[in-house]
User: What shape does this take?
Amino acid sequence: MNRLLLLAVLAWPAVVAAQTPAAPAADPKALEARGQQLATQVCGACHGADGNSPAAANPSLASQHADYITLQLVHFKAGIRQNPVMQAIAAGLSDDDMRAAGVYYSRQQAKGLAARDPALVKLGQALWRGGDAGNGVPACSGCHSPNGAGIPKNYPRVAGQYADYTYAQLRAFKNGERGRDKEGKDANGRVMRGVVKGLSDAQMKAVAEFAAGLR
Assistant: This one.
């Protein structure tokens, strides 16, 4: 792992703490109820009322870390992360709304998926566990954990995510569509840009396929 990438990894927890809205004083049950209301009225059409997305183009959010969901909404609202639909939705959310959505979806049960291509899974497993030292690619498991559960407050869960969505995000990082905010606030994006720099298209597809089958 090069020095810039290592510094970004180490800085990420502090960035999360600085950018995630302060916890509201609301009762946790009331907060979750508000999140469920948002899921039913706003988020469910794309991400599923229970966080299990009905379409591979949209990420499943069930069992995702609450702070990660909240931070992505903050980034959409601030324009750090670009997506016309999500930016329009986030624009109308308060800090409490964004945290409530995170809390609700984090408490939903992910249904999980099955990997489809054995050949891709084999390559993806090797990259997940050992990376590609020759091209400066660290093991995915170092940040997202061996089982894909991620690290709360630091790195997102990717286990059981649609392979098509994961692959699309890896391509977005490599193409500079994610992680290139001018103010440098997306520390996670900078990490991922460094990671995917050495990945081929086939390797990105393989990692995405392997992650889809993780539990």
Q: What stands out?
A: The mean pLDDT is 88.
